[in-house]
């Protein structure tokens, strides 16, 4: 088990480095850097001024060197202008000679320095921490609603394959999965939050939920996400449950006279949850990055909304920070999923 974990952690680190380098390279292409220079100095600056600004701020260094500086494994760049003023990655803006001499040599992700957002004019770590906290609340509420509902639907449908209950619940699962969030969200707003229909039970915006969650301002975004993800988990649970219910040991238990509820709860359910467990773990990275539409639709400024703002405004440092968190969540959930296999079914080999 320990060897398996060490191998997976090593693979995770290598994967994270490769993915973050790809994102770093794509976000630091010449057209993107030119946009950053023009957003800082003005759209009417000349090409020579763009080149001068990029060189002054360390953007003209080799990509692999800048990637190491961004990680914090290589010393940060420094520049000395004609007046003798020293600037650098690790030197605060406007620092005097004494402050520049006292500045750290390494300042990157490993040191907790995630950069400065050119759009929000705040530290990237502060922005990500706030957006993660907001999306974390939304994710928790969605998981509480989605997972039990999906498992119940899947188990009920898979217990008796081909029955009316199976057909009805399978239809519901297919409909919810096939309906995009931007459709279900608009429908829910039109029905339950619009004066046109008259059922103003909930708020059409979740902005107020950022300060305080209430039943009125948080129900519609939670339902919008939960309905979309619930159908997929229910279908996987139903397929797994159907396969388990036809296994030989289930037939043996029936012949021995074991009651049907005991067969389902004590024998079938644990084995049937192996496949849905993987799907459930995959919901975490999907919820973190896939709530872009819902957060934008309900004006809820969480992690997905931050991702849209960073990409739309060419905020390189913020976009890199968002990518690091996304990669980390995906890899961690995959590791938890693999380890969880052992506890659900000890017969699975780890090699």
Descriptive tags:
2% strand, 68% helix, 351 residues, MetI-like fold, 2 domains, single chain, mainly alpha, 2 strands, two-stranded antiparallel ribbon, 15 helices
Verbal overview:
The protein has 351 residues and is mostly helical. 68% of the residues lie in helices and 2% in strands. The model has no long low-confidence stretch (mean pLDDT 83).
Total count of helical runs of at least 4 residues: 15
Task: List the helices and strands in order.
Answer: HHHHEEHHHHHHHHHHH
Proportion of beta-strand residues = under 5%
Share of helix, binned? 55-70%
Mind summarizing the main beta sheet? 2 strands, antiparallel
Strand order of the largest sheet: 1-2
What's a quick, concise take on this entry?
With 351 residues, this protein is mainly α.
Topology summary:
Elements: H1 2-27, H2 30-41, H3 47-56, H4 63-71, E1 78-80, E2 86-88, H5 97-102, H6 124-159, H7 164-178, H8 181-192, H9 215-245, H10 248-255, H11 260-272, H12 274-289, H13 292-297, H14 303-312, H15 316-344
Antiparallel strand pairs: 1-2
Helix pairs in contact: 1-15, 2-3, 6-7, 6-9, 6-12, 6-14, 6-15, 7-9, 8-9, 9-11, 9-12, 12-15, 14-15
């Amino acid at each position: 088990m320990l060897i398996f974990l060490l191998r997976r952690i090593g693979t995770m680190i290598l994967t994270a480095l490769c993915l973050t380098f790809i994102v770093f390279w794509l976000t630091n292409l010449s057209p993107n850097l030119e946009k950053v220079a023009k957003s800082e100095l003005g759209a009417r600056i000349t090409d020579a001024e763009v080149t001068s600004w990029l060189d002054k701020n360390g953007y003209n260094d080799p990509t692999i060197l800048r990637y190491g500086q961004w990680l914090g494994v290589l010393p940060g760049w420094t520049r000395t202008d004609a007046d003798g003023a020293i600037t650098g990655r690790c030197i605060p803006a406007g620092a005097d000679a004494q402050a520049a001499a006292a500045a750290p040599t390494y300042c990157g992700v490993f040191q907790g320095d995630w950069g400065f957002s050119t759009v929000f004019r705040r530290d990237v770590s502060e922005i990500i921490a706030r957006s993660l906290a907001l999306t974390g609340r939304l994710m928790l509420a969605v998981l509480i609603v989605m997972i039990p509902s999906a498992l119940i639907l899947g188990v009920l449908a898979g217990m008796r394959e081909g029955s009316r209950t199976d057909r009805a619940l399978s239809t519901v699962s297919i409909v919810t999965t096939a309906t995009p969030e931007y459709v279900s969200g608009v429908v829910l707003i039109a029905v339950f939050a619009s004066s046109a229909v008259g059922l103003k039970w909930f708020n059409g915006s979740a902005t107020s939920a950022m300060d305080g969650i209430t039943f009125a301002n948080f129900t519609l975004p939670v339902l919008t996400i939960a309905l979309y993800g619930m159908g997929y988990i229910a279908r996987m649970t139903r397929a797994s449950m159907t396969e388990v219910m036809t296994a030989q040991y289930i037939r043996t238990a029936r012949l021995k006279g074991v009651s049907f509820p005991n067969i389902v709860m004590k024998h079938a359910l644990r084995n049937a949850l192996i496949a849905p467990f993987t799907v459930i773990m995959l919901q975490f990275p999907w919820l973190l990055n896939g709530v872009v539409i819902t957060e934008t639709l309900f004006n809820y400024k969480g992690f997905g909304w931050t991702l849209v703002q960073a990409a739309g405004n060419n905020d390189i440092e913020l976009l890199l920070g968002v990518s690091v968190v996304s990669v980390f969540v995906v890899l961690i959930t995959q590791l938890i999923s693999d380890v969880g296999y052992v506890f659900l079914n000890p017969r699975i080999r780890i090699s």
